[in-house]
Amino acid sequence: MTQVDTHSRTISYLRVSVTDRCNLRCVYCMPPEGIPWRPHTDILRYEEIAEIVRAAAELGITKVRLTGGEPLVRPGVAELVKMIAAMPGIDDLSMTTNGVALKRHAHALAQAGLHRVNISLDTLRPSRYESITRLGHLEKVFEGMHAAQEAGLSPIKINTVVIRGLNDDEVVDFARQTVDLEWNVRFIEVMPIGQCGVVDEGWRDEVVTAQEIRDQIERVLGPLEPAKVITGGGPARYYRLPDAKGTIGFITPVSEHFCTSCNRLRLTADGQLRPCLLSDQEIDLRTPLRLGADRAQIRALILEGIRGKPDRHHLSDCAPSSKRVMSEIGG
Ligand code: SAM
Ligand code: SF4
């Protein structure tokens, strides 16, 4: 049954981090040395994730996104996709991935019932990709994107985090790609989560606002027109260049928060329910599940999370703080 929280928001979307591990170390997400991986016993088994998603679906969750860490580094993730795809009530099942291993997995994921993917890509320049991700190779992402298209995992959205002095000189290049390619590029304002080197005390200076990005694009390529929201809805506002095949979206957690329409909950890989990305409030689902809690008890805990969901984040009032880095929460 649909749940409305105490701030009149309908909660319909669950983001599930399937692992805290990753094959990259993006500068805004993880420290260079990585983070100590949680032991396997701390990480929810696929059956445990499925049980939580089933309980959430009974509470009106219709949309599920698998994320990480990097979801494709967890062996057998297509098995989890299959379990969730078969659940009554889930009508949108997607994944956020860095795309590096997507070529190998795209077909199996589509066969298992995944609907679509978001691919994170912050630069179109090979050497810059290596320095931003510290470990990645750009051609792998393009191969992954191509494989996803072939497998029908569309519409594909491209997530581009923009950081001042790092890649803000490429926003026009990204926008230009949308003219001839069906790219749905979404520019994301960088958020201060955890301590990972680039995004720390001076984080406000790193943020390039959506307005700045839009101005830069329009100065070179002309005015953007409003575009229809593409599948999945979410907080992005979409535009397109005249006659372009693709779209350009803006996600503005910093300059214009979208908390009043936030419809989401998050589940960390170690089984903690996080009602808000930017609040450290968490509800432990793993312990009760392992002590034998039944579906109704898990539903009650999820409801507690929904009722306690903060009205908004407070990035504008206070310094960043999180006991987890972004890769542990899943974005
Ligand atoms: N590894 C996958 C990937 O990179 O797509 C999924 C996990 S990643 C944490 C999910 C999303 O969070 C990515 O699109 C990434 O760019 C974004 N992200 C990570 N750190 C961020 C930050 N500090 N501010 C804004 N977005 C961030
Ligand atoms: Fe890994 Fe994704 Fe974080 Fe990059 S953004 S370090 S790919 S989890």
The overall average pLDDT, rounded, is: 92
Distance between the termini: 26 Å
Q: Provide a count of the helices.
A: 11
**Mind telling me the C-alpha Rg?**
19 Å
CATH superfamily: Aldolase class I
Largest sheet: 12 strands, mixed
- The CATH C-level name is Alpha Beta
Give the helix/strand class.
alpha/beta
The CATH architecture classification is: Alpha-Beta Barrel
* Low-pLDDT segments, ≥5 res: none
Strand order of the largest sheet: 9-10-11-8-7-6-5-4-3-12-13-14
- Fraction of helical residues: 25-40%
Task: Please tell me about this protein's structure.
The protein has one domain: Aldolase class I (TIM Barrel). It has helices at residues 46-58, 77-85, 102-112, 126-133, 138-151, 171-180, 203-206, 210-221, 286-290, 295-307, 326-329, and strands spanning 3-4, 10-11, 13-17, 63-67, 92-97, 116-120, 157-162, 184-189, 225-226, 237-240, 247-251, 264-267, 272-274, 283-284. The protein is globular, with a radius of gyration of 19 Å. It has 331 residues and is of the alpha/beta class. The chain is built from eleven helices and 14 strands. Helices cover 31% and strands 17% of the residues. Helix 1 packs parallel to helix 2, helix 1 (46-58) packs across helix 10 (295-307) and helix 3 runs parallel beside helix 5 (138-151). The protein has a twelve-stranded mixed beta sheet with strand order 9-10-11-8-7-6-5-4-3-12-13-14. The two termini are 26 Å apart. The structure holds S-adenosylmethionine and iron/sulfur cluster.
